[in-house]
Amino acid sequence: MNHIKLSINKWLTLSPVLLALFLVACSGQVTKPEPVSAENKLTLYVKNNTAYLSGILEADLPSKLTKMIRQHPNVTDIVLVDVPGTDDQQATMEGARLIRRLGLNTHIAATGYVLSGGVDLFLGGVKRSIGAGAGVGVHAWSDNVGTVANKLNKMNPVHATYVNFYLEMGVPERFYWFSIQAAPASRVYFLSPEEMYDYQLVTE
Question: pTM of the prediction?
């Protein structure tokens, strides 16, 4: 699975202020993201029964989630505040599966956003909801050797890794094919609220 370690998401981010200004207008449109800052490391903050997660998802995501739950076994919900993507898709999928096994719910904060691999982590929630003005952005994935999803033959077995993951999360296969065609690897397509419900990303 190392072949699906992603490099494109290192700079897939938008500042919360900028995102709040044009997110609604960009729903259903393709935009070019701004460069990511060096400070955009993954952070987890727990208050009461809710964990707040921000930053790029990296290889240590499953271990960080496990540690958080051990220290705060009362957590029932994970709020994704601003998640610009992942540096390790395998770890992101493992993190989503862990969230599902633990029976946790996921929520995207109002005016927050999840992009690319951040969407996959969001899908781990048993119940999934999105705050007002929140953004969900997708695009064709690419890896660190230059492979681009929408350039591969549809029968390439790499696609099955993603398709099976989405089916496991209760999301229809058609969402995967939509996401890799919606925007090239260098850009982001923001889903409209109707698309979020149509593709069953949101359960509430």
Answer: 0.84
